[in-house]
Amino acid sequence: MSQSERLVLATRYRLVSEIGQGANGTVWKGHDDLLDRAVAVKELRVPDDLSEEDRVVFYRRTLREARAPAQLRTPSIVEVYDVVIEQGRPWIVMELVEAPSLEQIIRQSGPLPPERVAPIGRQLLEALEVAHRAGIVHRDLKPSNVLLDGDRVVLTDFGLCHSDGAASLTKSGHFMGSPAYVAPEVAAGEKATPRSDLWSLGATLFAALEGRPPFERDNVMATLSALANEPAPIPRNAGPLTPVVTGLLEKNPTRRLSHARAKDRLERAMTGPRSSRRRPPPPRLRMVAALALAGATVASCGIGATALIIGMSREGSEPPRAGSSATATQSPAAEDDGAAPPGAASATLVVRARTDRCKIFVSVPGPTTDVLTDETLPRGAARQYDQPRLNAVIHDASACDVWVNGERKPLGRPGERRTYTLTKETPRS
């Protein structure tokens, strides 16, 4: 047992085991002997190049600013219980959330589908709104500081947070924050603001959707250079979340989405656009109404009434394309001959377009996502992929036939989105 593990802080917080280490400290699993509950304890690391005078300032400021998140009360922010000074350095006692981080989920599973990312973004946006109303800027929002505890999303590690009115200790040349997730104005030396937290939220959502942050490069300087000089990339896997992510990644802070606008776009992405128009009646009712109308006027309209009945009965089905035959409007099931494309029995993934609405996104997960295709297939076209690991998104499960490791997947409902995380099966001997 290390010397730290034998420590009891403030005569009540007993360190049990190390959970992990970060750039600015070590996190321990602890136990509050007074209240008999598990806690997390963060031991803050003091920068090595600080003078003794600056170390005293660092301790005092850390004690003051670490207390700031303790006033925040929302399920989406980790609760701070106490801050103590022990052995001449500050320790932050917090709620223990034993759950994987978003970074771990991305590393293990690759890019997440928009329908999973949307509620994560909504809860993080609510957490930032609570913090910003209290005058607190997080300054280090990134996937490793987001815990996923079932349906609960928890923003943690306010170690770099800054409250309004507090003097900054950061010296020129001391970069604070994570380069891949820091806002461009902060990287350029400007003060962190709520708008810079919203940029970091956009970069975090981008990483969740694409498997990597938007400006990540091989080293810190290359990342900062890309952040300063290159336009923000458009996410390829965001679907309805694209306006949210691109709006948060607006480089000009004054044009960046506010809390209210980001929330509105998220709600629209999750529920679809609002419409004040009345919904049209179902196709069957429209056809009945057409028949009634035609029946009432058949005596005077003659052949024209027959044409009206035929035209209205087709409403709601797929409109025929110019020059196509009548079979072009049949349902996909009527067109399917049931035969698998060549190679489907041995490939990791095969997709064949039943209709011209078969849109697919296929990528290879890894440290950087390798996008194989992002396209809408023409009717009857097939694509085959033999990579051992794949992520695939089928945007309309009724428009595509899908084979995974030789097994045909059942069709879905029109407009239903399906996401596959695939591993190639080895044939049994």
Strand and helix map with partners:
Elements: E1 8-9, E2 13-22, E3 25-32, E4 37-44, H1 52-66, E5 80-86, E6 89-95, H2 102-109, H3 114-133, E7 136-137, E8 146-149, E9 152-155, E10 162-163, H4 184-187, H5 194-210, H6 220-229, H7 242-248, H8 259-271, H9 283-301, H10 303-313, H11 332-335, E11 349-353, E12 358-364, E13 370-377, E14 382-385, E15 389-394, E16 400-404, E17 407-408, E18 418-423
Antiparallel strand pairs: 1-2, 2-3, 3-4, 4-6, 5-6, 7-10, 8-9, 11-14, 11-16, 12-13, 12-15, 15-18, 16-17
Helix pairs in contact: 3-5, 3-8, 5-7, 7-8, 9-10
Notable features of this structure?
429 residues; alpha+beta; Phosphorylase Kinase, domain 1; Transferase(Phosphotransferase), domain 1; 4 domains; 6-stranded antiparallel sheet; 11 helices; elongated; Ser/Thr_kinase_AS; protein serine/threonine kinase activity; transferase
